């Protein structure tokens, strides 16, 4: 990401050095948290900085990506009921409950991406991805897990 930031700085310098007159203002924002919900970008917006367009210098295999869905990160806790493994049926496995949630989330992703009409986003295989990147459950291998926490991102 540092390379993209330097490229943006030099692009602004090139515009200035060439004497190009822009119809509006040009601002460079370097924010944190783009992979964790965009809190840096949100803080920038709260300070009143806005624009008509944005160029994000994200490495994309040297491809220009003219539209992007954005991202929202989330964290979900699934509750169960702990029991010793030898009495498994007396417990409620948070993992088993999560598996059903995961299937529903995959179906939601499929439905959200089934009829994309945006002329630029429709070029992506999955314009609005929903990805679970972290799953953590249980605290002992010989017990039914009473809690599972999963985290993900949705476009």
Write the layout of secondary structure elements.
Layout lengths: L1 H16 L21 H8 L25 E8 L3 E2 L9 H19 L17 E8 L5 E2 L2 E8 L1
Antiparallel strand pairs: 1-5, 2-4, 3-5
Fold and architecture overview:
This protein is α+β, with helices and mostly antiparallel strands and 155 residues long. Helix content is 28%, strand content 18%. It folds into two domains: 1-65, no CATH class; 72-154, Alpha-Beta Plaits (2-Layer Sandwich). The longest helix has 19 residues, at 94-112. The chain starts with a helix and ends with a strand.
Essential attributes:
155 residues, alpha+beta, Alpha-Beta Plaits, 2 domains, two-stranded antiparallel ribbon, 3 helices, 28% helix
Quick synopsis:
GO terms for molecular function: hydrolase activity; metal ion binding. Residues 68-150 form the Peptidase M20 dimerisation domain. The protein contains three helices and five strands, in the order ααββαβββ.
- Which CATH architecture of the largest domain is right? 2-Layer Sandwich
CATH topology group of the largest domain: Alpha-Beta Plaits
- Summarize model confidence as the mean pLDDT: 88
Major β-sheet, in short?
3 strands, antiparallel
Residues in helices, as a percent range: 25-40%
**Beginning-to-end CA distance, first to last residue:** 20 Å
Q: How do the helices and strands follow one another from N- to C-terminus?
A: HHEEHEEE
């Amino acid at each position: 990401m540092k390379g993209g930031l330097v490229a943006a700085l030099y692009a602004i310098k090139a515009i200035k050095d060439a004497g190009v007159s822009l119809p509006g203002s040009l601002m460079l924002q370097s924010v944190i948290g783009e992979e964790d919900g965009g809190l840096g970008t949100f803080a920038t917006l709260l300070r009143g900085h806005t624009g008509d367009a944005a160029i994000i210098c994200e490495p994309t295999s040297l491809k220009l990506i003219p539209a992007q869905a954005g991202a929202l990160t989330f964290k979900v806790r699934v509750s169960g009921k702990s029991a010793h493994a030898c009495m498994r049926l007396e417990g409620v496995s948070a993992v088993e409950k999560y598996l059903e949630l995961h299937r529903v989330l995959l179906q939601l992703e499929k439905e959200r991406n089934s009829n994309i009409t945006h002329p630029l986003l429709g070029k992506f295989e999955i314009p609005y991805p929903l990805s679970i990147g972290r799953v953590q459950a249980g605290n002992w291998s010989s017990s039914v897990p009473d809690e599972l926490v999963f985290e993900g991102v949705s476009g």
